[in-house]
Amino acid sequence: MTATKAMIAVLALGVTLGGCATRESVENAQASANAADRRAMNAQGRADDAYGVGQEALGVGHDAKSAALIAEQKADQANADLSAVKRRISAMEWQGKPQKKARKARTTQARTNS
Question: DSSP character for 100?
Fold first, then answer.
């Protein structure tokens, strides 16, 4: 019985001491945790920067889309104006052409006078 109790006591003591960490291992673990925290903060900063760049690009994209829509409207208006000018030119050309005058039939009286 005593040997069994001694064996249990040795095993219990070994498990208890095996779970204890040395000061050096705790300091190493803390240093690792601090380094991981710094890397995480650095990554968060980069993610925030990337988000800002994305938002800026989105704003530029919206501005470009608005500018393209305005340019399209101006092009449509220019095409409409060009069509109107072409119609006016065509009308002016038609009006500017000499018109054929209708011949008047000479009357017999006019022939006798001459």
Answer: P
Q: Give the chain's end-to-end CA distance (angstroms, integer).
A: 169
Q: Give the pair of three-digit tokens for residue 16.
A: 């208890």
What residue type is assigned to position 74 of the chain?
A: K
Kindly state the average pLDDT of the residues 18-40: 83
When pLDDT is cut at 50, 70 and 90, the band that residue 96 belongs to is low
Cα 73 to Cα 15, 65, 66, 79, 81, distances in angstroms? 82, 12, 11, 10, 12
For 78, the token pair is 């220019």
pLDDT score for 91: 83
What is the pTM assigned to this prediction?
A: 0.45
Tell me how far apart the alpha carbons of residues 56 and 51 are, in angstroms, rounded to a whole number: 9
